[in-house]
Amino acid sequence: MTQSWARFQHDGTIRFGLLDGEQIRVYTGDMFADPKATNISMKLADVKLLAPT
């Protein structure tokens, strides 16, 4: 199964995470160099998806 990374904004903060159905599992660190999973998930409807950079 392919993992889909997303860059998004929530409450004025830009973050990234993995799409998981209607949720985004939030990660910290560098997406391309050892990203770290957090215990935070957000509803996709509650965030603004951003273009990759």
Keywords:
5-stranded antiparallel β-sheet; 53 residues; mainly beta
Describe this structure in words.
This protein has 53 residues and is mainly beta. It is 0% helix and 68% strand. The protein has one domain (5-48). The chain has no helices and five strands. The chain has a five-stranded antiparallel beta sheet with strand order 4-3-2-1-5, with no helix packed on it. Strand 1 and strand 2 form a beta hairpin. It starts with a strand and ends with a strand. The model has no long low-confidence stretch (mean pLDDT 94).
Structural class: mainly beta
Radius of gyration: 10 Å
Q: Spans of 5+ residues with little confidence (pLDDT < 50)?
A: none
First and last CA, distance: 24 Å
Query: What strand line-up does the widest sheet have?
Result: 4-3-2-1-5
Number of domains: 1
**Cα shape:** globular
According to DSSP, the number of beta strands is 5
Question: Secondary-structure blueprint of this entry?
Answer:
Blueprint: E1 5-10, E2 13-20, E3 23-30, E4 33-43, E5 48-50
Antiparallel strand pairs: 1-2, 1-5, 2-3, 3-4
Please outline what is shown here.
By secondary structure, the protein is mainly beta. Helix content is 0%, strand content 68%.
